[in-house]
Amino acid sequence: MMLVKHPSVLAESRGWQNAQEIIGKTPADEQATKASDARALRLAVLVALTRCEGQTDRDHWRNQRSTTRDYLTALAGWCYTLSDVERLAAGMPALDTENEQDGDSPDED
Question: How far is CA 52 from CA 6, 12, 34, 71, 99, in A?
Answer without folding.
Answer: 10, 8, 25, 7, 33
